[in-house]
């Protein structure tokens, strides 16, 4: 295997995971970023993101000398024969993709690269962008250059990024010429994974189509959950029954508070824009996005129906990250929920085992933030579960019952089996399942017992 000199522009999730995995395969990898704070951490062997296993590989590869970091684009690019673009491609106001970071990175390549290079678009970009990048670099290059551009979209999930990289279901390599495609296929060959070779545009579309399809599965199951609630059926059983059909599959059928994160909301909106620009109204995707927006307010609406007023209630908001095992709060359903609760005059105390620092910066000032679940639940009038962190799922229901002033739980992730909850004096509202009102039942029973005791005392004293 030829040892390659690889430059990676952008050290976010995707850039970092790509960097450590290519260094693990024995290549020389240099990463460049414009964020000096991030680079200082990385150079010191500290991962700026919470991603299981990442820091260990970072330290190992820094020590071996195969991995390095710089803020100087020229230093990263001038000797590289493969250059990855892994910068962010966030949404603009209208839902279309902001390509300014990507084009800045392309400009840096044109200033420092020379001879023959392979430019790989790892960032998720609208169809046709890789061609634009190639033309841009060739047009603005200050030295003679031959650019082979390859689209190699990323499919990792946050929280299990390394597993998804080393054991990916597929690697997509899209190119309109064979030179770059062949080099990338050789690069990934030692991973022994399923490689799908396509043209440039198809590769770019595979990424959006995949994310949009997964988002569709989630909105679909959430709609079935809404029907379950009205029919007294149980969404967990329905999803299990559906998912056992191998044509449907069990994954991404977990009903909940709606999808969040840095990609599904952004990429579904982008695909809507892409279709719209082609005069095609993507009605199915429009519905998927609409259902997700509605689903994110569902727990709040349920709480408003249950309690006429949330004002002055002490509310524990459990989980801030958009899913467990990450400290990423981008598009987390916890953020709009916290804002709504504050607007309604509730006293909110938010808990997250990892994302609490980031949460403190993003939540309204009125929200207290803690990394201690007991502290959040103490004397709370109700609790919202937003993220299914193990520490939340495994926290004993007996303690929810004991610590809370009034143990009413709105669970957006179906963390507990109904049979388990019904053993406690807890009122429990979840997604796509019947609500449990044991709180009333048990306290009534307690009241009756108290009354009985009082009357027997009265009897004894008369
Ligand atoms: N986060 C994820 O799980 C996944 C993300 N993607 C896609 O990958 C791309 C990157 O996503 P993330 O890693 O989450 O982004 P991120 O926002 O975490 O990181 C991007 C990095 O690029 C840096 N950057 C911006 N302009 C630069 C420039 N001119 N030169 C050097 N560095 C520059 C930023 O400072 C930042 O550190 C996006 O297109 C995203 O849609 C794809 C699959 C998974
Ligand atoms: O393009 C991307 O950035 C990535 O987007 C997702 O990965 P990620 O956002 O890290 O997380 P997921 O595990 O897919 O979850 C996304 C959201 O859907 C929600 N979800 C997921 C699965 C499910 O069954 N139900 C459900 O509500 C999660 O809670 C979360 O809010 C995709 O799964 C990755 O393949 C893709 O590379």
From TrEMBL:
Enzyme superclass (EC): oxidoreductase
A GO BP annotation: polysaccharide biosynthetic process
SUPFAM superfamilies attached to this UniProt entry: 6-phosphogluconate dehydrogenase C-terminal domain-like, NAD(P)-binding Rossmann-fold domains, UDP-glucose/GDP-mannose dehydrogenase C-terminal domain
Molecular function terms, GO-annotated: NAD binding; UDP-glucose 6-dehydrogenase activity
EC identifiers of the protein: 1.1.1.22
UniProt key word NAD: yes
Pathway: Nucleotide-sugar biosynthesis; UDP-alpha-D-glucuronate biosynthesis; UDP-alpha-D-glucuronate from UDP-alpha-D-glucose: step 1/1
UDP-glucose/GDP-mannose dehydrogenase C-terminal domain sequence ranges: 316-418
Protein keywords: NAD, Oxidoreductase
Active site: 263 (nucleophile)
A Pfam family: UDPG_MGDP_dh_C
Positions annotated to bind NAD(+): 33, 38, 89, 124, 158, 266, 330
Record-linked PANTHER family: UDP-GLUCOSE 6-DEHYDROGENASE TUAD (PTHR43750), UDP-GLUCOSE 6-DEHYDROGENASE YWQF (PTHR43750:SF4)
Family in the record: Belongs to the UDP-glucose/GDP-mannose dehydrogenase family.
Identification of the protein by name: UDP-glucose 6-dehydrogenase
Organism: Robertmurraya siralis
């Amino acid at each position: 295997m030829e040892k390659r000199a690889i430059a990676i522009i952008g050290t976010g999730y995707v850039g970092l995971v790509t960097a450590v995995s290519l260094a693990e395969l024995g290549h020389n990898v240099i990463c460049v970023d414009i964020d000096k704070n991030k680079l200082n951490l990385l150079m010191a062997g500290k991962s700026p993101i919470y991603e299981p296993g990442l820091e260990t590989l970072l330290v190992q590869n820094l020590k071996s000398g195969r991995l390095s970091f710089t803020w100087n684009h020229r230093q990263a690019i001038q000797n590289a024969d493969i250059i990855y673009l892994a910068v962010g491609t966030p949404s603009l106001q209208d839902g279309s993709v902001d390509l300014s970071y990507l084009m800045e990175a392309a400009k840096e390549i044109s200033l420092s690269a020379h001879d023959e290079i392979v430019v790989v678009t790892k960032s998720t970009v609208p169809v046709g962008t890789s061609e634009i990048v190639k033309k841009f670099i060739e047009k603005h290059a200050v030295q003679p250059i031959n650019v082979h551009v390859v689209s190699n979209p990323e499919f990792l999930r946050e929280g299990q990024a390394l597993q998804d990289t080393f054991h990916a279901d597929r690697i997509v390599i899209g190119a309109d010429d064979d030179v770059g495609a062949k080099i990338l296929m050789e690069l990934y060959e030692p991973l022994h994974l399923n490689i799908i070779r396509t043209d440039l545009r198809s590769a770019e579309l595979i990424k959006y189509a995949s994310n949009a399809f997964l988002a569709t599965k989630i909105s679909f199951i959430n709609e079935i959950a809404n029907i379950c609630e009205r029919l007294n059926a149980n969404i967990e059983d329905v999803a299990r029954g559906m998912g056992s059909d191998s044509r449907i599959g069990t994954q991404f059928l977990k009903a909940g508070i709606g999808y969040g994160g840095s990609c599904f909301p952004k990429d579904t909106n982008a695909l809507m824009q892409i279709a719209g620009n082609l005069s095609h109204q993507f009605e199915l995707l429009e519905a998927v996005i609409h259902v997700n927006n509605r689903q994110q307010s569902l727990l709040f609406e349920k709480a408003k129906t249950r309690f006429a007023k949330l004002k002055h209630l002490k509310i524990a908001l459990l989980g801030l990250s958009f899913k467990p095992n990450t400290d990423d709060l981008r598009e987390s359903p916890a953020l709009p929920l916290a804002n709504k609760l504050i607007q309604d005059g509730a006293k909110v105390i938010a808990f997250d085992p990892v994302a609490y620092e980031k949460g403190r910066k993003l939540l309204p000032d009125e929200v207290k933030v803690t990394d201690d679940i007991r502290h959040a639940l103490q004397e709370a009038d109700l609790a919202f579960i937003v993220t299914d962190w193990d520490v939340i799922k495994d926290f004993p229901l007996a303690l929810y019952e004991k610590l809370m002033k009034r143990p009413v739980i709105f669970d957006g992730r179906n963390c507990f089996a109904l049979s388990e909850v019904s053993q406690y004096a807890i009122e429990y509202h979840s997604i796509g399942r019947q609500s449990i009102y044991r709180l009333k039942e048990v306290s009534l029973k307690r009241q009756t017992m108290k009354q009985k005791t009082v009357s027997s005392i009265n009897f004894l004293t008369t």
